[in-house]
Amino acid sequence: MAIFKLESRLNALEKSSTSHQPSSVPPTQKVEPFSVPSKKVELPAKKSEPAAAEEDEDDDIDLFGSDDEEEDQEAAKVREERLRQYAEKKAKKPGLIAKSSILLDVKPWDDETDMAKMEECVRSIHMDGLVWGASKLVPVGYGIKKLQIQCVVEDEKVGTDILEEEITKFEDYVQSVDIAAFNKI
User: Fold this and answer.
1) What is the SS3 assignment for 99-159?
2) Running DSSP on this structure, what letter comes out for residue 169?
3) pTM, whole model, 2 decimals?
4) Residue 115 to residues 9, 145, 170, 183: CA-CA distances in angstroms?
5) Phi, psi of 175 (to 5 degrees)
6) Ramachandran assignment for 65, one of left (phi > 0), alpha (psi -120 to 50 degrees), beta (any other)
7) H helix or E strand, kind and range, residue 27
8) Which of 24, 65, 107, 137 could make an SS bond with 145 (beta carbons 3.0 to 4.6 A apart)?
9) Alpha-carbon separation of residue 52 from 43, 45, 47, 57, 96 (angstroms)
C-alpha cells in the first residue's frame, strides 16, 4: 500500500514538471562518428644485392676494436700482470693493527707500600705490542694511594688478562689490578 502511494505521487510529480520532460537528444550529447582515412600500408621493399653488400661491409667495420684476438690476448696479459703486481703490493703492506688504550688501577697492600718501587716494577714489564704511558698516584682513603697508569697495547699481541697476571706477580707491592678505562684506538 505504501509503495502504491509513492508510485502515484511520483507519477503526479513527473506529469506536473515540464523541465524533466525527456527530449529526443540534448545538444551536448550529439556526437559525430569519427572517420579514419584509410591509408595503404606499404611493406619495405627487398633490397637489391649491391645495397645488401654495402651493409655487410659496414658490419665488418669495428669501431671499438673488439674483434682483434691478438689485442685481447695482449690486454689479458697486461691485466694479469697488473693484478699480480697489485697483489704483491697489497701483501707487502701491513694490515690495520687494532690497538687499545687501557687505564689500569694498581692497588697496594697498605699505606706503607713504596709506590715508586711499585711503579718501577709495573714499568719493568716488557712485551711486544705494549707501550707504557703516563701515571699518577690517586688517593683512595686513609692515606692509601693507588697507582693509575696508562698503556697502549696491540690487541693481537697483548691481552688484558696477561697484563693483569704479570702485574699481580709483584705480590710484595700489588694487591690487585683493575681496568679503569678501556678504549679502542
Assistant:
1) EEEEEEEEEECCCCCCHHHHHHHHHCCCCCCEEEEEEEEEEEECCEEEEEEEEEEECCCCC
2) T
3) 0.50
4) 114, 8, 12, 26
5) -90, -50
6) left
7) none
8) 137
9) 17, 12, 6, 9, 63
